[in-house]
Design brief:
Layout: E1 5-8, H1 18-30, H2 38-42, H3 49-59, H4 67-80, H5 90-98, E2 102-106, H6 111-117, H7 120-123, E3 128-130, H8 143-152, E4 159-163, H9 166-174, E5 178-182, E6 196-198, H10 208-211
Parallel strand pairs: 1-2, 1-4, 2-3, 4-5, 5-6
């Protein structure tokens, strides 16, 4: 397999933001008298935000008309209180790959959130960013990753996806893309749909198809 492009999920892969995202969701649902657990949110990571609100909302008896408001509050709470940081090794590996291969971020996060929280110099190292606003259907449908391949101008068979969640893995595989999963937020047993599983981002440099690029 000749790798010409790498597509990175964002939350839980490049950025250690899942705890902050959960706290924002938890606070948002609390406004409607609902208590959600970390486990039920983490397993949904990668879905479009409105889908997360609908799934958790319906599970806990929240009225349909409130789902959009839940998402609005979640985004506001996150922007007001987050401790944004990259995982160890992210900046270094992205710098190494920058001049060697095309790269794309594929995230369910709204573009506005990414633009407000991610350093601009970091974003500039990627050829394209697919946000949650760019596909009508989000993960686990293949659309977001197919969009990323299209924007890079590369066949899915010549790309690799870096993911951390079951729905993202499903999206990548449906798109026909080789997938490496990082067990950063969920146990390995939930990531079995990936082609390879590693423990942490820093281990990527030891994966054969990534190491060859370096």
């Amino acid at each position: 397999m000749t790798i010409e492009g790498i597509l990175f999920d964002f939350d839980g892969v490049l950025a250690d933001t899942m705890e902050d995202n959960f706290r924002a969701w938890k606070r948002s649902f609390k406004s409607f008298g609902v208590k959600i657990s970390k486990e039920e949110y983490f397993i949904l990571e990668g879905r479009k935000l409105i889908d997360v609100a609908e799934i958790l909302g319906s599970r806990h008896g929240v009225n349909l008309e409130n789902y959009g408001r839940i998402v609005e509050l979640k985004n506001r709470f996150y922007l007001e209180n987050n401790s944004f940081r990259f995982y160890p090794g992210v900046a270094e590996l992205v710098d190494q790959l920058y001049s060697k291969i095309k790269m794309c971020i594929v995230s369910a996060s709204p573009r506005g959130k990414l633009e407000k929280t991610v350093p601009k110099e970091f974003i500039k190292k990627f050829n394209y960013v697919v946000s949650g606003d760019d596909s009508e259907r989000g993960k686990p449908f293949p659309d977001p990753y197919l969009k990323g391949c299209e924007k890079l101008g590369i066949s899915p068979g010549n790309c690799v996806v870096i993911e951390n969640a079951p729905l993202g893995i499903e999206s990548a595989k449906k798109a026909g893309i080789y997938c490496i999963a990082i067990s950063s937020t969920l146990p390995r047993k939930l990531l079995s749909g990936a082609d390879e599983i590693i423990e942490k981002f820093e281990d990527l440099k030891n994966v054969e198809i990534i190491g060859k690029l370096l």
